[in-house]
Amino acid sequence: MLQHALDMADNTTRIMLANELRGHVREAVACSHANHVLQKCITALPPAAVQWIVDEIYSWGQEFVVQLAEHRFGCRIFQRLLEHCSSQQLNSLVSALVNNMARIAASEFGHYVMLHLLEFGTSDQRACIAAMIVDNASWVGSNFYASAVVAQCLAHSEKVQKLMVATALLSHPMQLQIMAGQKFGHLAIISMLQMPEVSSGVRVVLMGVRNHVKGSQYWKLVVKHFQ
Question: Which 8-state DSSP code applies to residue 224?
Fold first, then answer.
C-alpha cells in the first residue's frame, strides 16, 4: 500500500510519507518488507528530498556503511541511491567503501554494489575499483562474486584502466585458467581476448588449460573468441 501511495501521490504527500521513516532507516534496511518502501522513497522522490537517508546511513559510522553494502537488503538501498542520486550526494558513503572494496567485491550481496558503482559511479570511483583489482590480482579473478566485478570493470572502465587490470591478471596464469571456466570469469577473459595488447598472452595461457575446464560450458564460449 505504501509503495502504491508513493507512486500515485503528489510530491508534497510523498515527502510527508517518506519522512515517517526518518530515524528508522537502520530498521527499514534490515526488514524484508520495509526495505522495499525505502527503495520506493529513493526512486519516487527528487534526489534532494532523500538526502536524509544518506545522512542517516553515514551517521552510524563507516563499518555500518560496509556492513550495509554486504547486507541482503542493504545492497538494494545502495543500488537505488547510485541510480538516482548525484555523486556529490553519495561522496561520504562511497568514501567509506573505498578501503574495503576487495572485501565488498567478494561478498555475495556486496558485489552488486560494486557492479552498480562501476556502471553509475564517477571515473575516479571506477579507477579506485580498477586499482583494487590490480592490488588483489592473485585471487580476485577466481573468486565467484569478485570475478563479476572484474568482468564489469573490463566492460565499463576507461581504456587505460582496462589495460592495467588485464595486465595484472595476465601475471597470474592459473587465475586466468580458472576464470575461463566460470560463470562471470569467462566474460572477463572474453574482454581480454578482444584487447590487442594482451590477447596473445591470454591465448598462450589458455592453451594450457586443464581438461576439466575445457569441458565447461563457459570454456566453450571462450573458445569461440579464439578466432
Answer: G
